[in-house]
């Protein structure tokens, strides 16, 4: 089983190229280039995590309530 993990390959989420999982410093990406492309997409807000109104809670700070 241990040798199977060392040869396990996964598809890069950016380019689709197969890359080794074990020993890959860029996983789940195949290269630093794909890793940086993904980071750029997050920074440009191409990817978003959405939360419905029921998922957002107001923050209550007891210290501030006592001051009022």
TrEMBL record:
Q: What is the name attached to this protein's record? A: DNA gyrase inhibitor YacG
- Kindly give the Pfam families that the UniProt entry links to this protein: YacG
Q: Tell me which PANTHER family the record gives.
A: DNA GYRASE INHIBITOR YACG
Q: Which domain of life is it from?
A: Bacteria
Q: Does the keyword Iron apply?
A: no
One GO MF annotation is:
zinc ion binding
Q: Which HAMAP family match?
A: DNA_gyrase_inhibitor_YacG
Q: Give the classification, highest ranks.
A: Bacteria, Pseudomonadati, Thermodesulfobacteriota, Thermodesulfobacteria, Thermodesulfobacteriales
| Keyword DNA damage carried by entry | no
Keywords, A to Z? Metal-binding, Zinc
GO biological process: what's one of them?
A: regulation of DNA-templated transcription
What InterPro entries does its record include? Answer: DNA_gyrase_inhibitor_YacG, Znf_NHR/GATA
């Amino acid at each position: 089983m241990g040798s199977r993990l060392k040869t396990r390959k996964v598809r890069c989420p950016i380019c689709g190229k197969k890359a080794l999982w074990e020993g890959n410093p860029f996983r789940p990406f195949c290269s630093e280039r794909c890793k940086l492309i993904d980071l750029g997409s997050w920074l440009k807000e191409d990817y978003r995590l959405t939360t419905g109104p029921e998922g957002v809670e107001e923050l209550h700070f007891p210290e501030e309530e006592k001051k009022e």
